[in-house]
Amino acid sequence: MNVANGSGRTPAFRALAGHSAWSSLVNSGVRGRHDAGTRVLRQGDPGGWVLLCVAGRIKVTYAEPDGRELMLAVRGPGDVLGEFSGRDGGPRSATVRAIESCVVSRLPDERFAETVARFGLDAELNRYILGKTRESSAHVWRMAYRRTPVRLAELLLTIVAAAGPDHRSPATVTLSQEELADALGLARSAITPVLAEWKETGLITSGRGRVEIEDLAGLSAVARSTGD
């Protein structure tokens, strides 16, 4: 399946930095593998390092004091996580969890900044950070005003797009219905009939803790729809 970055995602930093610089950044850190569901960064913890996603998809969530969580973004290979804390010295602003088995490279803030400067990538990093900020603003608007089918379709397409070109199964989304509903700030009962209708029309198939997108073009049409 050919998956284009048509979901409004910010281009990965790897694409902006180039192969040589990205490889140098990755090799400057310590690699680690995280199983699906593993917490990689925790909201409120102190910073001190950044993570470079080498393989796999990762979700970024914000937790309210009452325990409710909302998905802010989905990141994948070539993305940087945790760079905000290195810039302002503040604690982690969100929690990061592996959607599927993933590999990340962890390196100290200072080493990350030095390597970015050595390759002359300050402008590219600023562009990347600004892009993620714009993406978050658009996400907030969609959460407030889009209908449930449109929001769910956009979420699934975003997860697919985050897989990157080398993923073996980009159309397989390993999140349960409960997790998908939580990501949208909805009850599971709000998305169950939508998924059931999509199964009947052949847009998706599903299993325990998994949604398989069968018709990417059809799901994209749902995401673009604006009718009531």
From TrEMBL:
Keywords: DNA-binding, Transcription, Transcription regulation. The keyword Transcription applies. One of its GO terms (cellular component) is cytosol. It holds the Pfam family HTH_Crp_2. Residues 34-116 form the Cyclic nucleotide-binding domain. It comes from the Bacteria. Residues 146-217 form the HTH crp-type domain. One of its GO terms (molecular function) is DNA binding. InterPro entries: cNMP-bd_dom (IPR000595), cNMP-bd_dom_sf (IPR018490), Env_Response_Regulators (IPR050397), HTH_CRP (IPR012318), RmlC-like_jellyroll (IPR014710), WH_DNA-bd_sf (IPR036390). The keyword Transcription applies. This is CRP-like cAMP-binding protein. It comes from Halosaccharopolyspora lacisalsi.
